[in-house]
Design goal:
With about 400 residues, the chain is α+β, with helices and mostly antiparallel strands. Helix content is about 60%, strand content about 10%. A hairpin with a 2-residue loop joins β4 and β5 (about 385-395). α1 runs antiparallel to α2 (about 40-50) and α6 (about 150-175) runs parallel beside α11 (about 265-310). It is elongated, with a radius of gyration of 26 Å.
């Protein structure tokens, strides 16, 4: 309870601080801010916590949004209106990504581009729809806002979601062990990219000054981000994209970097940098998924070779895939053809119940170990009144939380 209370206090402090910072920069034609940094905190928090806790985070954010808006001079109804749409749109974005992730769990590795496009299309539809509703509500309440308010409010939310999604995805999906195995490469690439960010966004490079003999240094930073995404681990890439978002947005708000507009209204520069950050985050995360997909396919092929070698001596065999953590079985052929009476084996527990001796205890010991070798267990599989000697073979766990296995029929 104490730890959860401390997390809630840290969330409130971070959210309030970023809200007050964002509220210092207003659109010249509406009551909205040019960027809304707290949405990222709420978005990441929702994705990393249980849905049962969502009401606490959302209500806390809405209350703080109302108080911060009222503190800087907004009328209370206007502050409550912005808080309501903020508390509605961010959970919708988080819920949409969770549902998409569940739908694409078995397809993501083979179609990373389509998965990324589905995500950005869904997020864009939600953010711009909510932005349109907010603009309509403001006009119905006789607030004088321009149509540009729709783009400004929606783009700020979309950019934050795309920048923070890779980090939250990696924290939920990727194990920490692979990061420890390649931390030197991650740290080196992070330092190189962050140094480029600070050099690019740490000085006034406006208009013609941004061009060095026809070369825009933004291309160098973008190329470095995209190439690094092919080599970085998920956590490292997520941290890099969050740092990229914070540095780029903050520098532009301060009038620094290639996107700053010192002569025109600052909103155009904010729009430029947010579009840049949004597309850079999307491209980098998509390339990362392509690289992860390629590495996963190589590991699957290696695991299949080991499995086929162990099953090659049998007269017949059937293979399956174990989906963790539920230990569901996806068979390469209908399991009812292998077992008696058309009985379908859907989980590893049902497989254990359809054979002897029990093997779950030995499997758990092997699973909790280093998994360097194949799991091998001789079984007597029940086929009606007949008992068929079989060999159960399971390969080590793959990065996508699955395992390959097979049953081979042994000679009596």
């Amino acid at each position: 309870m104490v730890r959860f209370t401390l997390r809630w206090l840290v969330f409130c402090l971070c959210w309030s601080g970023l809200a007050l910072l964002s509220l210092q920069y207003r659109d010249p034609w509406s009551f909205s801010t040019t960027t809304w940094l707290p949405a990222c905190i709420l978005f990441a928090t929702l994705l990393l916590t249980s849905i049962k806790q969502w009401p606490l985070w959302v209500i806390s954010a809405m209350l703080m949004h109302t108080l911060c808006g009222f503190y800087i001079g907004r009328p209370l109804p206007l502050a409550a209106l912005f808080a309501f749409f903020d508390g509605l749109s961010v959970p919708l974005c988080a819920l949409a990504l969770i549902l998409l992730d569940r739908i694409w769990t078995e397809r993501e590795t083979s179609r990373p581009l389509l998965f990324s496009l589905s995500e950005v299309a869904t997020l864009s539809a939600i953010t711009f729809s909510m932005g349109a509703l907010l603009t309509l509500c403001l006009r119905l309440n006789r607030y004088d806002v321009a149509s540009f308010h729709l783009v400004s409010w929606s783009l700020a939310l979309l950019t934050g979601c795309l920048a923070f999604w890779p980090l939250t995805w990696s924290l939920k999906k990727c194990a920490l062990t692979p990061w420890r195995q390649r931390w030197r490469r991650d740290v080196t690439l992070l330092l190189v990219n962050i140094t480029l960010m600070l050099l690019l966004f740490g000085q006034v490079v406006n208009g013609p000054k941004a061009m060095l003999s026809g070369f825009n240094p933004v291309y160098l930073l973008l190329s470095s981000l995209l190439l690094s995404s092919l080599l970085l681990s998920g956590r490292a890439l997520g941290l890099l994209l969050v740092a990229h978002y914070v540095v780029a947005i903050r520098a532009t708000l301060m009038g620094l970097g290639p996107f700053a507009r010192l002569q025109d209204t600052a909103i155009w520069g904010i729009w430029d940098v947010q579009w840049y950050v949004a597309f850079a985050s999307l491209l980098a995360f998509t390339l990362f998924r392509f690289a992860e997909s390629d590495r996963l396919q190589q590991e699957i092929q290696h695991s299949q070779q080991r499995l086929e070698t162990a099953l090659s001596d049998a007269a017949s065999h059937i293979t399956f895939r174990i989906i963790l953590p539920q230990k569901r079985l996806a068979w390469s052929a209908p399991s009812r053809h292998f077992f008696a009476n058309g009985y379908s084996i859907a989980t590893l527990a049902l497989l254990e119940a359809s054979s002897e001796p029990p093997f779950n205890e030995q499997f758990e010991q092997w699973y909790q170990g280093d998994q360097k070798e194949l799991f091998l267990q001789q079984l007597m599989v029940f086929k009606g009144e007949e008992r068929v000697p079989c060999l159960l073979v399971i390969a080590p766990e793959l990065p996508d939380k699955t395992m390959l296995g097979g049953l081979s029929v042994l000679a009596k």
